[in-house]
Amino acid sequence: MKIPFLYSVRNLLTRRLTTVFTAGGMALVVFVFASLLMLSEGLKKTLVDTGSEDNLIVIRKSSTSEVQSSIDRLQASIVETQPEIAFGADGQRLSARELVVLISLSKRGSNKPSNVVIRGIDKNSLKLRPQIKLIAGRLPRPGSLEIIGGENIVKRFQGVGMGETLSFGMRTWTVVGVFDAGKTGFSSEIWGDVDQFMQAFRRTVYSSILFKLRDPQRFSDVITRLEKDPRLTVECKRETTYYRDQSQALATFLRILGLALTLIFSIGAVIGAMITMYTAVANRVAEIGTLRALGFQKTSILVAFLAESLFLGLIGGITGLLMASVLQLASISTTNFQTFSELAFSFHLTFEIVYKSIAFSLIMGFAGGLLPALRASRMNIIEALRAS
Amino acid sequence: MNILKILVRNAFRHKLRSILTIIAMCIAILAFGLLRTVISAWYAGVAASSADRLVTRNAISLIFPLPLAYRDKIRLTDGVKGVSYGNWFGGIYIEEKNFFANFAVEPQTYLALYPEFILPPDQLRAFLTNRKACIAGGRLAERFGWKIGDTITLKGTIFPGNWELLLQGIYRGRDQTVDQSMFFFHWDYLNESLKKATSGRANQVGYYIIQLTDPERAAEVCTAIDKNFKNSLAETLTETEKAFQMSFVAMSDALIWVIQIVSGVIIVIILAVVANTMAMTTRERIGEYAIYKTLGFGAFYIWGLIWGESLVITLSGGLLGMVLTYPVSRVFSNAVGTVFPVFNVDITTIYMDLGVALTVGTLATILPARHACKISIADGLRRVD
User: Fold this and answer.
1) CB contact under 8 A, A279 and B280
2) Is the minimum CB–CB distance between B158 and chain A shorter than 8 Å?
């Protein structure tokens, strides 16, 4: 016969202080577990969303990012003549020659410097990235010393607000607009006219060529042709792959940090649950004896105590998840080691994280409750009854 | 002395529970100590920088170079004792995951500026006389099993091509704080190759390292150098080596902030565990406390008993954790390779561990002790649990 589930729940309610301490400890472990996974997921989402499936990006061979890459005008022209490139409404090929460099800017408030991506764009750059919307001001006029800033940069860095000016490359640049690129890496960039930037930075080469495919399925043909062309020393990737590669190191770092920490922390929480459950068993020796004398089986006792412990874990897990889900409102901005530039991303809760966290909390409850429940179920009836 | 005996006896009256709590405490202190060490490893570059060195770089950002011609102008600045220069090379050894810091530097002046890198005289001579020679730190050489005389090929990411270098020396650090996982080769080798391949990129320097005659004059010399190159194509930003290293740390301050919060959370978790143990202990002994009260011991004494017992548990767990921090951090440091080149347990970390153990031991008793002190004698004696 089964012992009612309510028996286990009531037992937790009787010793409220202990229940709160134990479940609270587990809740914090789940909180750390979920929030670090959310951070790693948010970073991945930001960089995956940055790219588009239809676009291909061409950079110099063996350079790992656009910043290190250089493509001269001749090579750029060869790349742009590929027949798979889509045509725009104006009958021109949809490809953009871009320049990407880093400039050091100071953060608002803390005044600490950090590297910000500054991208020289040409007329097709915006057409190739439909996710970008201008939310204030206007686009920079070609051939002028005007720039627009991504929303995350405008918020966080000095001199990038609407109407403010930045000085670099012996010129003064005016911010004429703010753009919103959603949760993508472009929100952490500054854009301006590519030719003006090349003059200012005394560069004769582009950083990357971005183009849209007429037929997205045929990307591998173009990639093979471009990489085998003896006139070119380039590497060609789908835009999505390119940005996913950029987040690899930081995402792995966050995930390993999260897993290692929660592993250590969970040992603490499991011990906490074990202490609680051992005491729960020790305090109820006579009660267990009575239950057994009434005819409840050993397994029923085992299940009742395990249920109590699992329920304890579940309370902790749900509380921890609720605390972590509040973090979705916050965002974090740090340097991506691989690109050496500032990148803003937010905590992102997925269904996978939810069920992983709940499963994790139940495992903690199970691990903490198993030994005490075994002890309870193995008690000798007569000795247990005598204990009172 | 008797009171200490009571405390220890009391603490271990319920052996299983106390031992479990001590293990939990030990793990928490261990985790806290490791996290603190990770943070201090982040600041290792800052800690190792010398007060008499300045770094000059392009004011726009680190990815822009400076002309080689600046070397002589900088040397002529008042207060400058020596100048060296180099480039972040960013080469990859076989695979991207084998990352280590590699620089092309002007070897003679560079090593003179960094007396903390100890290189045997014969290796130094061999390194200086061969343009294709390179030197590596002791830990780096160990990691890849390099021996003197080996040829090491780096794949350039910033400077394209395969660069073959001959390992001529392995440097050691003067003390523990020195990063022994760096890699240096001749700037001339890089420059001469660039002259042949892409002449536009030749004679460009990534950064200058400047030695001061007097560390007190750092601010003044920084201003003087930057003023010299104001309104030029390559404006400079000169700062002390400490500030330069600090700017790298500041870039990832959000991550450091996350780790700091997490190390705070572990304290709260262990606090919950210890408080739980103490709450259960006091609940079981309410009757005893009532007897103490009947005998005339005040509430203060009872509070002291509970506090002392809690401290016995947290301190024994804490001490165990502190002792274990050293071997575990060594294992951790070997496991992560050169991600954290300098990974030493600071003595301040140990003091903080001790502080955490005392704080947790104290805070954990507040709720249970208040209950034990407040309860009236009659209630305490009546209560059977």
Assistant:
1) yes
2) yes
